[in-house]
Fold this sequence. Notes:
This protein is an alpha/beta fold.
Amino acid sequence: MKIKMYQRENGSYGVRNRIAVIPAVACVNHVAELIAAAVDIADAYTHPYGCDQLGYDKELSCKCLVKMGIHPNNGAVLVVGLGCEEILPRDLYEAIKTQQVNAELLIMQEIGGTEKCVEIGREICKELAAKLAGQQKVETDIAHLTVGVECGGSDFTSGIASNPAVGLFTEKLAALGGKVVFGETTELMGAEDIIKDHCASEEIYNFIIGKIKKVENIAIDMKVDLRGTQPSPGNIAGGLSTIEEKSLGGVCKIGKSPIIAGLEFGDTATKSGVSFVDTPGNDMACSLGLSAAGAQIVIFTTGRGTPMGFAAVPVIKVTANAKIFQLMRENFDIDLSDIVEGDASITAGGEIIFDKVLSVAEGELTAAEKLGHREFSLYRVSPILT
């Protein structure tokens, strides 16, 4: 099956052609925002870090910022540094430049204060936007499409309608050679037996179970019982009673597909089919993990409703809760409440999602994009010690 996407010099393909303005440290977040505001296709990837991170934590932040810089949905990048941060802006720029030909660097302490930096940054972004304006999509195989699947603010409709419909989408895209990535490690607790049946090898199963146990052990060290504190109050209000019930609904997003790879946070999915990425359940962190894995689009199911988007990818919002859809209509792309009412099938829902993904891939804006929801944050794994 063929699809039109933007071809990048490093061999990847994107569904958008945007400019990422990436601050190396939180100190220049506002500067990055002011620069990005001057160009419609620019996004500021603001985050609270860049200093006071140690070891793996710092390495992961650097890795994810590089991944955003070379993300296939970005046709150009401007790295904005302060000049004295621990994530060295020049190193960040050089790492991105190896795979992103349209990359520029701006270091505030070398050129002046806020106003001067914003002035120069805006001119750079305008020049980059002019370069991107002439690029056209090319026809390529759908095997170059990677879609992340995620759920948040779940309720009873998520597990009985939205997620199973996403599962059918997953099966269809995987059968066509495309890639699907899913995460939310904490929301696999209680579904271990089902996960085992899906895993293509014992090695993959052991990887996933190891990640679940690791999260549980961290919680125990903190004197917290995850299985006793989940689901969240919002999930409970939405009709979910236990973490097992929540997990059984969440795992439906991969349908009957085998899990062919287990990935660390920040790693890239390279195989056709379904890959697991070790991410927290937190919506923003999970979106980062899925995007860093290569997802050009994320499907996000929610029964309770959430407006969140993500800077690097279009986020398709799906609900099967008729009341929430009416209350937050502007935030949703797909209403599957007919499935709950018995007026439509799960199969029909899967086809609706598949068609929407193709439309978004070829240029249709999602509700989150139209409303300007392009949130971003990094994932911190260690405390602030310095």
